Write the C-alpha cells for this entry.
Amino acid sequence: MHILITGAAGMVGRKLIERLAGDQSLNGQPIDKLTLFDVVAATAPQNINTTITTADLSDDGVAQTLIAERPDVIFHLAGVVSGEAETDFDKGYRVNLDGMRNLLEAIRHVGDGYKPKVIYTSSIAVFGAPFPHSIPDDFHLTPLTSYGAQKVIGETLLADYTRRGFLQGVGIRLPGITVRPGKPNKAASGFYSAIIREPLAGQEAILPVSEDVVNTHASPRAAAGFLVHAASLDPEKLGPRINLTMPGVCCTIGEQIEALRRVAGERVVSRIRREPDPFIMGIVAGWSTRFDATRARALGFTAEDTFDDIIRIHIADDLGGNFVR
Amino acid sequence: MHILITGAAGMVGRKLIERLAGDQSLNGQPIDKLTLFDVVAATAPQNINTTITTADLSDDGVAQTLIAERPDVIFHLAGVVSGEAETDFDKGYRVNLDGMRNLLEAIRHVGDGYKPKVIYTSSIAVFGAPFPHSIPDDFHLTPLTSYGAQKVIGETLLADYTRRGFLQGVGIRLPGITVRPGKPNKAASGFYSAIIREPLAGQEAILPVSEDVVNTHASPRAAAGFLVHAASLDPEKLGPRINLTMPGVCCTIGEQIEALRRVAGERVVSRIRREPDPFIMGIVAGWSTRFDATRARALGFTAEDTFDDIIRIHIADDLGGNFVR
C-alpha cells in the first residue's frame, strides 16, 4: 500500500507518521511506500520506504505529479492555519481552496478506475457562534473566519467528489488538539496546551482566561487515531454525510488544572500564573465549546475519556515518561 | 442607482426586471441605470436606461469589466441549473463556482471604499436527505447534487466576503418557483408547474407522481419580491448569517389540484392525466419538502399564503387575466 500525506511536516502529520511507522500497516495491508509532502521537508520514518517532496499544492502541476503515482490512501492535512488565513486572504484561499481543488481534480483526471481514499482534516471552525449548549451533528455551517469558510468549502467539494464516485472521502473535524508538543506558539488558543506543557517542563505558563472557560480536547495521539480509523471506514456504513465532528474530552480550564494536579502534583500546578487578557478572553468567547459527535462515536472514533489521560499521553509520547516535579 | 443583474435572461431575471421597471426605484432611490448580463441577450425594459451584455462570467476579465462601472446593487442570478451541473461536471463548477468567485474577486479588487450589495440566488438544493419533518433554519448543508454543492460554496464565499467587509451579501434559498411560465421543460420538477399551466392553457398535463407528494412553492412574483426585499435589508439586523431559506406555500399535489379546481373549475382540472412514472417518483422522494423559514419571515420576506393565490398570480402576470375554461 502506498500512502500520501500532505502537510506531513506539521504536528498532526508527524504524529500520524509515527503511528503508521509503528503499525507498519493500514487496514491490514503492509505499507510499501510513504510519500511525505509539505512546503518544508518532512522527516522520514526509519522503517518505511519514503519519498519526501517539498512543493505547494496550489502551484500548477504539483498535484498531478503527486497523484501520478496513484497512492491508495491520501491524508490531506496541508493547509494554511486559522490566523494566517485571516491575515493573508489571498494565501488562505490559494492554499486551502485551490490546493484542495487541485488535489481532487488531479485524482478525478486519472480516471481508469482509480479511486483512492482521501482523508481530510477539517475543523470545528466550520461552526460559528451563537451556538446551542452542545453542537449537534446536524448543526449548520456558519463559519466566522476565512479558515472556517475554506474548511466548509473543502468538506463540500470532498463530499461531492465522493458522491460522484471519483474518490472515497472522509472529512474529520478536529477538536482542540491538546497537549501540543514543542514551543509555545502565537495562536490565541495556545494557552490550552501551554498551561499543561510548560509547567511539566519546569516553566511558568500564563493563563489569560478564567477557569470556567470550556473547550473540547483530544490528544495528538487521538488525532492520529482518528485519521487511521477514518481510512478504515466502510463507505456503505458512512453514507453520503462523510464529514464528521470528532469526539473529545469536554472540560473547563479549572478541570484541566485539577487533572494536572492529580497527574503531576501541586508544585507543577503552582507554575500556572493567572494573568487575564481581555483581548484573548474576547476571542475565546466566540469559540465553540461542546459537541455531540454522536455519529463519529457510533462509527467507532474514540478520544480520551478524561483530561488526566490527555496529560499522561503527553508525558508518555512527548516527554519520554518524565516531567519536572 | 446602478443595478447589475447577472442571469438576466432567465425566468427569475425577467420577473425581477419587470418588477424594477414597475417600481422605477430600489430602496427609495431612482434607478438610473440597469446592466443586464447573461450568456444570451436579455430584454431591456422600455423605461430604464439599460446596457445589455452577453458573456460568460467564468471567462477571464469579464467580471472585472462588469464591476469597473461600480454597480450599487448586484443581483447575481447567473448559473448552470441542477440537471446540467450534474451531467456536465466541469461546466457546473466553472460557471457556478469560478464565475461566482470571479465576481466576488472583481468586487474585492476595486477597493477604494466600493462595497456593493450582492444578492445571490441560492437554492434549497443545499439541503440533502434524510430530512426532519420540517427543515429548521440551522439545519446542516449536505447537498446531494453538484448544483447543491456549488450553491453551498457560493453561500460560504458570499458570507466570508461580507464578513471581511468587501461587500454586503445576502443569499436567498429559493423554494420551488411555481407556476413557471412558458413551455414545459425537461426538469424532473417540471410537473409542479405543468399541472397548473397546461390545463389553464387548454392543454393536457401529465402528473407522474402521487397526490400526497409535498412541496414548498412561491410564485415568480414572490421570487422577484424576495430579491428586492433582500436588497433593502439592514446588515446590522441581518447579522453574520446572511444566507436565508425563503418562505413559501407548503402543500401536497392533491392540494394544488384542489386549488386549481377552486380558481379555474372542474373542466380545467380534468385536463390533468395521472401517469405514474417510477423514475420521477424516485427522484422526487429524495427532495426536501417543508421549511421553517423562521428567520426570513421575521426579516420581512413574504410569499403567498395559499396555492390559490399562486395560481391567480400566474393568470394575472402570465396569461393576461384569461385562461381556457
Remarks:
- Chain A has a mean pLDDT of 96.
- The interface with chain B takes residues 89, 128, 137-144, 146, 149, 152-153, 156-157, 159-160, 163-164, 240-241 of chain A (CB under 8 Å).
- The CA atoms of residues 173 and 222 of chain A lie 13 Å apart.
